Amino acid sequence: MDMFKSGTIVKVLLPNVVNSGYDYRLTADADLGTFVRVTVMNRPYIGVIYGFGDSGLDENKIKNVSKIFTTKLSVVDLQWIQKMSEWTLMAPGAVLRLIINVPDAFDEPRTEQLYAYNPEHGETKITESRQMVIDAFDMNDNEPMSVSDVQNISRVGTSVIKTMISRGMLVPTTSRQKVQSFAYNYVDKGNIELNAEQQNAADKIGADIAKGGFSVNLLDGITGSGKTQVYFDSAWRAYSAGKSVLLMMPEIALTTQFIKRFKSRFGAPPVVWHSNLTAARRRDIWRGVLNGEIRMLVGTRSALFLPWQNLGLIVIDEEHDSSYKQEDMGNYHGRDMAILRAKLSNFPVVLASATPSEETMHNIELGRFGHLVLRSRYGGAELPTIETIDLREHRPTEYRVDSKTEDVRMGALSQKLCDEIASTLDKHQQVMLFINRRGFAPIVQCKKCGWVATCPDCSVGMTYHKKMGKLLCHMCGRMMTLPEKCPDCGNDVSMRGAGLEKIEEEIQAKFPNARTALVSSDTMMSRGALERLVAKMESGETDVVIGTQILAKGHHFPNLTLVGVVDADMGLFGTDFRSPEHTFQQLFQVAGRAGRGKVPGHVLLQTYQPDHPVLAAICAGNRDEFLRLDMDARRTAKMPPFGQLIAIIIEGKKESVLKQFCNDLSNSAPNVNGAKIMGPVMAQVYQIRGWFRMRFLVMGDERAALQPIVKLWMSRVRIPANIRIKIDVNPQNFM
What domains, with CATH codes, occur in the chain? Predict the structure, then answer.
């Protein structure tokens, strides 16, 4: 570690700056990577020493650092920041912002009024908003919280919180945040016996951990094959060798079921890192990782950027999941950046999936990753039978909304699927219906003039949500009242298409005794709401669960024997070259929810395209043949992973300024061999939240170095103040 003497001018990298750091004078000796406090325009910031100063400023104009901390990032961490910056084209400071993502991590606990939830609050009604507040406390082990924490986590208005305080549901408690310890002492309880396939996979990963050095292994197992217990075994081997372990998961997979399994295996709960933690808990976990107290943690993609000490293993569960791609605070793929970190630090990575990404399968083809396969379900559970329902022959049937009225609507469920639902319910077994459309009707349109309800701030249609009685834009969240008549011609408006609320209405009409539950981002506003649904499914209080992709992974319902996919054609014909892969993954994961107990499962896919290769592969259980065909198509088209793409999205508040800037950018595009620059074109969603959007796409072959080309190109133009540019390397979203 390089040491800088007191008085040395050093470069300090600050979070979320566009350049590579500012120069400051040290007031004491400090190492490279040491955390320091500095001021920029009289505002305090925490940064890290990034090297010798190189601004060339007069030394009399260079400020002193305000404080030098004893903690620091390692040289490898700094290398990771630089490498990640070069790959994603994020500024190094923007990468550092992902690491220093807890504003008060270096401050003493603040004195502020905290509130505790009082379960003995009497007969006060528990409204939906109040339940979300209760869930916020439950999610944080009922630790006292500040009003701002309650509001941020529960996403309710201050009036709800004030009412709960006035009615004694929330009571004032200590006014100082205490520092929480997470020094759990894990042991292997030895209560799991692996089968032969699992043991072989565990031993291979264990050998890599014992040997040391960088490696990546894909744990490729069908749903229900016991991948979790295999990577638990790997986690224990690394942990017992004195290393720190990170288990990365998609947000929705962080369920009570998983936490119970972890605690059963290791004797204590995991430290969990996700988006709905209090500021105090985030601070304490961040510090616990930095000082080495926390050595085993389960978290979402942002957990990768905690200040890890002696990290020795990363497990990435559901490695194919699109939620690992960050698109808000910079564009990066959590899986790829985890592998980069492991390569720099020289330790193993385990990827786990039943439907691996084609990028991962290509790396296996090239011999870069190991491939460990689990072919049978753990405990001997049988795989479900999967078949299609041809909607050209088995049309959806009508239903009467209310037996007292003549209001008849066209349904979305065929008679064949309804018969299977009836048979399943008669056996006192459970049904899951999957449709990846929120709300009641995705299109609200005038019957006469063709007017469509669209968002004024986004160039997308608005969805009618019956439970809210509102039109909702799924892009920006704007709500509007459903018009009684067409605003253009005054005629009636109609609702087209089916969302999950309409499917629930149809089920309730056709099976009035069935107990239903809806699962989507609208109904599962908190993890607590999702856990209550899971508990009702496990206890048999729910007969039919209807949901979106939230249902596709992470849940184990032993009595769920029938899965019906209402519209299996969704996504098959999208403009994104990844549409077939994503559709296959989603439907395969949904199908995997069926028959995980003693009774075999049955999966029915409603479709107008029963011979489509994706559906044929799912029904035949022939995942590998689908992957081979789809990868061959991508290889021919030179699409990732057999080529590279960088999307450049230009956004502007004024169309004229945006188009002029895009013309200037196009005129300054470099001529390069081995790469092609296309655009500008209007983005598929041209307007989002009032910003107009244009796109360029840079294409190159698998070995092309596209980032230096884009960096040179962007340096040639001056960016106006009302224009913003987003660069997305190997984009997952083409909207």
Answer: 3-99 (3.40.1440.60), 115-172 (no CATH), 196-380 (3.40.50.300), 385-437+500-633 (3.40.50.300), 439-497 (no CATH), 643-729 (3.30.70.600)
